[in-house]
Every structure is written in structure tokens, then in C-alpha cells.
Amino acid sequence: MRFFRDDIRLEGEEPSRLAMVIDSSMRVTNEQQFFSWAQCELQYLIPHEILICGIVSGPESEMRCYRFSSTRYFRPEHFNEVCDPINGLFTKLMYLTRKTDSPCVLGSCISIGGCEEVWLPLLESCELKNVAAYGQSGTDGQIRCYFCFARLADELSPRLVYLLKVLAPILEATFSRVLTQQGIKKQPYFPNTLSLSRRENQVLYFLMEGKSNQDIAEKMSLSPLTVKNHVQNIMKKLQVNTRGHAVTRGMKLGLLTANNKEMQGEQNG
């Protein structure tokens, strides 16, 4: 099922508002400016109270999340729950987008992009009310950034899906510049990680094939000890105790896809 309609276009004041969003984003270089930009210009296209940004800074880096909220209801403990590496709603939405390459929209009366109604209690428990999320993927199929808007004021509709697709590259460029030029202070309540590194994904794929650490080491030109460390990190991140459970969890989360297989071919070629 397609969730992106070809007949939707920017209309009315939206083109000029988008131009204003792009122009103002060029002057955003620090955390406070990003927050102000999200709470001012960005509101003209997607009115919201909460914005959660997840980003991977490099091929071997882990995704880290940051929150920008104008509501007192969304507390640090809610942020922790939303970004839980396995069961958090942000994680579920991100892996769903990875499978479908579609934005995710979820509210009490609407579900777009394959969102499940069983996730609705997570909206309530975390004071989100509703969410609209999308991100950008790299050439290897891995999501390199993901943005989740919550407590949206406007109607949740297919038009919102279009706006998410338009704004995702702008959000990535702006937030990446902030991280590069000034950095953002580490938030003490940030949970560990939301994704495996590219190399860990490679190791996980070989685990699915039933290969031993020695086999993996030979194929990846690594030492068996390095492979062992990667396997331990994978199990820790996926919160499992065995290699088999890691593969099962990886399949459930959409980590073991055709993109992984192609990546192995490049590695072995």
C-alpha cells in the first residue's frame, strides 16, 4: 500500500513558508538557535510541541537522540521511555520506516505508514498525544537520521506525509551543522543506543548464516577477538543472551534486509 500521494503539492502560503524555513535554517549554528528555529519557522509547516532528533555521526557510530520540547508534560522519563533501544516508540517508528521507506503518522483516529494501534498506549503514557516521523537513509540502507514530531496541532493526514518528506533533508542538514559546528550538550537521561553500527550489522548478518567467530574474522579481515567484541556489543544492544536470539531480534527489527546482503557482497568482493 502506498502512503505518498503524487497529487499533493505545496499550496497557498506553503511555498513561501518553506522558503523561509530553508533561508532561516542557514543561520542555525547552535542548540539554542535550532530550538528557536523549530519553535518558530518550522511551526508554520508542522505545528508541534515536541521534536525528537536521532542522528548517526559516522559509519561506525551509534544513533543518539536529542529532544526539543516546549511542553512541561514531556519529562525526561518520558524521553527515556520513547527512545528505549528495543521497546521505545521512536525505535519502533524508525525501524518501520526502514522497512517501508515511508513516513509514520499515528494518532487516536489515524494510522499511516503501517503504524500499529497497539502502540497507542505508548502515546498516552509518554504524553505525546500523536506523532509524525520520518528520516533519511544512507546508500547502505541504514537510517542515518530520524525526526519525530509529537503533540501536533494540525490534522493528521496524507498531506503531513508529504511535508515530512520535504522537510527531512532540511532537518538533517540543519541539525548536522549544529552538531558539527558547536555540538550539543549531552543529555544525562539519554538511553544507550538505537541502532547497530555498519560493521555490527555485517557481523549480525554472518551470525544469521551460522558462521563462527573465526569464519567471520576471515571474511571481514578482523581478529577473532574483535569479532567476539562485536558479537557481545550486538547482544548487549539488542538485549539478548545468545547469538540465535540476536538474529531473531535483528529480523524482528528489520536489521537483516536485502541491503545487508548486498553489503556483505561488497565486503567479500
Task: Provide structural commentary.
It is a single chain. With 269 residues, the protein is of the alpha+beta class. It has two domains: 14-181, 2-Layer Sandwich (Beta-Lactamase), CATH 3.30.450; 198-268, Orthogonal Bundle (Arc Repressor Mutant, subunit A). Helix content is 46%, strand content 13%. It has eleven helices and six strands. It has helices spanning 14-25, 31-39, 76-82, 89-100, 120-125, 158-181, 198-208, 213-220, 224-238, 243-252, 258-268, and strands at residues 50-55, 64-69, 104-107, 110-112, 131-137, 143-150. Strands 2-1-6-5-3-4 form a six-stranded antiparallel sheet, sandwiched between helices. Helix 9 (224-238) crosses helix 10 (243-252). The longest helix has 24 residues, at 158-181. The radius of gyration is 19 Å and the shape is globular. The chain starts with 13 loop residues before the first helix and ends with a helix. Mean pLDDT is 85; it is low at 188-193 and 262-269.
